[in-house]
Amino acid sequence: VSVIEAERIIANHERMPHSPEYENGSAYTQDTYRPIEQGVVPITDAGFIHADAAYDVVSASAGYMFRMQDHIKRFTESCAKFGLENPYSEAQTEEILNNLVRLAGLKDAYIWWAVTRGELEEGDRVSAQYKNKFYAFVTPYMFIHGDELRTRGAKVKISTEFKRIPKESVDPTAKNFHWMDMKLSVFEAIMSGAEWSVLTDFDGNLTEAPGCNIFLIKDGVLKTPDDGCLEGITRQTVFDLAEELEVKLEVTKIPVQELV
């Protein structure tokens, strides 16, 4: 199986005209478009101090955003699960993101946005009144791994020190800021000589990797975890392709032993 050299392909895409101040990217904070270096979050915003937020990420390639409507829909659902309200409509959100890409002149982009609980406007922590805030930024596309490593395959470590935060604590289907289980598992992997990590739940079943859903092929069957993971848009695309190509797919519990 050949691997598409996406990094090389993207490097050959000519950037669109843009102001020099947006060379490193663009941001939308405090209801204003800014160069990314000027994008700021108030230090007392609950998203900053308590990770109290929902977010999403979509990529653009060759000027096309990947399943934008699906990402917007998932973001709306994530906000609802955390009791957050986006101050912008779905159409306004999409317009802001498109404008950010245009300002940065990027055909291949990493597009991030979030709604935070915001700053405490009045009351104490018991009767807290917050005004939810919207933030977004766009930078040149970022790869988890480059062409060389993806071609040869990354050395992966199944974390033994850290478990995926259980869904009873934080719903993994709502894209959230609670990344310490995943970040620490990556550090564990790197310290052991591996290049990325995979997390299990407390019952020893596979969940996901940092920034990635997990798939494996065993006995001709494509398998992916049914729980403890984000309902990824790329994951859904794999589902769609499996159906189109008539590949047998199982969304199921996967004991860690099946991967090793």
From TrEMBL:
Protein family according to the UniProt entry: Belongs to the class-IV pyridoxal-phosphate-dependent aminotransferase family.
Name of protein: Branched-chain amino acid aminotransferase
SUPFAM superfamilies: D-aminoacid aminotransferase-like PLP-dependent enzymes
PANTHER family: AMINO-ACID AMINOTRANSFERASE, AMINODEOXYCHORISMATE LYASE
GO biological process: carboxylic acid biosynthetic process
Originating organism: marine metagenome
Pfam families: Aminotran_4 (PF01063)
Gene Ontology terms, MF aspect: catalytic activity
